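pasting Lrp/AsnC family transcriptional regulator for the record, 152 residues
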Amino acid sequence: MEHFDQTDARILNELQRDAGQSLESLGDTIGLSRNACWRRIRAMEHAGVITGRVALVDPKAVDLGLMVFMQVRTHSHDPDWQAKFNKATRTIPGILSVYRMTGDLDYLIRARVRDMAGYDALYQQLIHLVPIADVAASFVMEEIKDSTALPL
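structre below
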């Protein structure tokens, strides 16, 4: 995007808070007309600043109350293994995020499952799809802060 200003940042902050609000409401909050807001949003979408609009779902309401972080270590770092791992993690619905890491850990996976049996099923599915040297899991006991909003 060629020009990103404070008004764009204010629009993004509002959309991160509630992307479902009307353009009229957004314009009132920002101090712009409905059309001016719409033009700025479209420009940010075309520039790739806004990559999508989603509904945030309460995991407990859909029986996915257990969050797990899986620390993955591998013996292989070749491109074929990485492509297979990437494809496998993208196809498993319970896996929400996958990060390639520095240090002792190769990958960090964040997943949501119903319970311990759900975790075991996810784990079995993953190791069936791609060979992994070691997996350690940590289960979230309390979510203190979980946000999707970027600080702008």
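The two ends are 16 Å apart (CA to CA).
The chain has a mean pLDDT of 96.
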